[in-house]
Every structure is written in structure tokens, then in C-alpha cells.
Amino acid sequence: MNTYWLYLEPYTMVFSEKEKSLIYNTLSSEYLQIPNSGKAYSILQRILSSPDIYLLKIEEDELFEKEVIAFVKNLQSKFLGEYIACHMTTRKPVILYPKLKLLRSVKNMETMGKDILAYLQKIVIQITGKCTCQCSVCSYAYKQITVCNRLCDKELDLDILLQLITIIRNTSAKSIDIIGGNPFFYSSFEKMLEVIKLTPMLQFNIKCFSEHIITLTDCKVLSLLKNIPNIHLQIQYVGNVFIDYLQELQMRLENCGVRYGIEFLISSEEQYSQAIDICKALSFSQYEMIVLLNEKNMDFAKQMYWDEEDILSLNSSKKDIYRRQSINTFDFGKIIVLANGDVYSNMNFDSLGNIYKEDISAILLKELEEGKSWFRVRNNIPCNDCVYQWFCPSPSNYEIVAGRLNFCSIK
Ligand code: SF4
Ligand code: SF4
Fold first, then answer.
1. With a 6 A CB cut-off, is 394 part of the ligand 2 pocket?
2. Per-residue model confidence as pLDDT tens digits over 110-124
3. What are the residues facing 34 on neighbouring strands?
4. pLDDT tens column, 277-300
5. Does the beta carbon of 7 sit less than 6 angstroms from any atom of ligand 2?
6. How many angstroms separate the CA atoms of 75 and 23, rounded?
7. 129 lines ligand 1 (CB under 6 A)
8. Dihedral of the CA atoms 180, 181, 182, 187 (nearest 10)?
9. By the number of CB atoms within 10 A of the CB, which of 54, 83, 138, 381 ranks highest?
10. CA of 398 to the centre of ligand 1 (A)
11. Which residue's CA is the closest to the ligand 1 atom numbered 6?
């Protein structure tokens, strides 16, 4: 009787939960789901049981059993696996399966620690915490998105700002987000612009609220921005959307010739529709909708929940899956420096240290060693028993704020 090698392709990944298994082609994103019972599952288990390789030696009569060959044909049709008669090959085929090398192992931490600044990717710097607005979102928006806040009423020392920019210039980071308070209240604002002008390799996104622009008594400061190509003004608009207000905002910005985009921080479907209609009416080309959750709009949050189709339509590659297994893709490499010098990797967790007192590398090392943010992955209930554990986006701030560990309609 003939014997065969039955194998999975090296780019195939297998994920199992209590009741089903997902066999996934990381090149084409095709997949097969099977229940964790029956002959197909037992064959899959036997393929997976060889250490390091995806291979099973199988007798002809078992391979051609109705249920087994139907499973194998499914694997073939999605290029997930194949079989070959043993006499057709002189050696046992070696089909190594994809394996993640854990980034947060002690050895890697030592290596990472030496060159930790190289991991900096996203930097948010609050230049001042001063602001005279009284927004209701001030007490919670900063826990969800990059936005101004009044957590301290200090100003960042200009020398510290310069030091930070010099450090960041030598990392892989391409841009810096500048926030307030009201950034236009920063007493060294013009000096900061001079420094930005001399740092063309970095993009500076100055984020402010629309109210900061509308209440400017003198628009001279906006005109200063227009001659600096590496500055982009990102205006955040919160609450119900009014066309007259936005028209005034648009006029001010366009009269000064400044490059800008608008982020609408929306909390309801109504605000979403208003914003879309007004952007069309005013021909805004650069705008984004960002959801802001609060205690009253958790029903609106449900619209953000994803389902199986959404997850699988992400077409995750092997690299995407590995990244989600090892780091939080939203937070990894990110720091927020407040105007009082406190440094955070995520505003929902404790400060890692203070830039006035400690070296930035030492502060970042704390995130590597004991931080909760950069390596926050889906390894908790209910995600740790779900086949989509590494297909779903990394846990976001919305999940922390909503007190849910999953933003899906699956579990
Ligand atoms: S504009 Fe920003 S800093 Fe000022 S009150 Fe509103 S949210 Fe807070
Ligand atoms: S969020 Fe968690 S429970 Fe929901 S599909 Fe993703 S991994 Fe599964």
C-alpha cells in the first residue's frame, strides 16, 4: 500500500479555540474553518504534532477516506496544504511552520534597552497646559485620543523642548505632535517655530481645538505658520457641527494661507451626519471623523464593534499577525510628554518618569521592563480563547475607556 506525506504550506498558520480551528493562508488571506471534532480535526492535530514541522505520513487507505480527502481537497483548493506520495521524494519534506520569536524575552529586552531611542516612533509633546476654554470633554478625551488637556498648567521649558527635538531627530520617528492647552498661549511659540524651521527632516503637527483659532484676536501667528513647510495645523472640532462657525474658521485659515486639516470628534450618529454634510457644503478636502466615547453614548460605541467579516477582510499578513502577537500596534514606540515633564506611554496608565529629572532612555526602559502599554496584546479573556485573537487590531484606548476587553460582536 502507498504511503503519502501530507503537509501544510510554510506560509499557512493555524489558530484554535475551544470549538473550532482556523487554517489561514498568510499570502492570499484564504482560510478554512473546521470544528474541533471529527476526522479533519484529528488529521490537523496529527500534522501539528510533529515538532517544528507541518507534516504527517499517512497510509493510502486513510488519506482517501471520504472525510479525510474532502478536507485535503479543501486545503489544496486554498493552497493551504498538499500531499505527495512518499516514493516520489527521496527525502522527508521539511515544512517548517511560522514561529514567532518573542520580542519581550529577557535577551531581546537587553538588546532593545541598549538602543531604546531607536524604537521611538510617535511623540506627542504638550508645550503648555494653559487654556481658558471650558470644554466638557477636557476631563476624558485625552484618555482616548491625542488631544489638548489641562492636566497641568505649566509651560514646557524651551531648552527641554529643544533637547527633545534633537533626540527625536536621531530616531526613526518622522513626526512630532504638538499639543496644548492652547498651543498659541506658549510664551516661546515663535522661538519654537524658528527651531521647527531648522528641523526640516521632521514633520510637526500642531493640534489645537477650533476654539483656539476662533478666539485668536490677532491672526499674525497663523500667518507665521504658512511659511514653514514642515508644519501642519490639525484642528479638532468637538460637539454639534454648525456651518456658520466652520465657515468663519475656514475663512480665517484660508486668509492666512496655512495648511490645515480638521478632525471631528464625534459622539453620535447625528454629529457624524452633520459633519459629513458640512464638509461637503464647505468643500473641505482634509477631514477625519474620530469617535469620542462618554458615559452616555455607549450605544454609539456598538457601531464600532467588528464582526467576523470585518476581521477577515483585513487580509492580515504573517507580519501583521506577528506584530499583533508581540506589541500593541497603537502604542508601541509612542510617548507623551506633558508640559510639567511627566512622560507617559499611554495616558490611561501611570507616568513613567519626568523629563526634568531623568534621562529619556531611562524613562523608556521603564516601559520596556514594567510598562503596561507597548506590549498590551490580546492575551486576556475573552480574546485568549478566540481564533481571531491575532487578527483583531491591538487593544485600543476605547476598550480601556469602555471597560470592555473586546470591541467585537463575536464574544
Ligand atoms: S480646548 Fe482643550 S485644553 Fe482647553 S478646555 Fe478644551 S479640551 Fe481642555
Ligand atoms: S476582539 Fe477578542 S473576542 Fe472579539 S473577535 Fe477579536 S479576539 Fe475574538
1. no
2. 566 567 888 898 999
3. 21
4. 999 998 988 899 999 999 888 888
5. no
6. 9
7. no
8. -80
9. 54
10. 20
11. 135
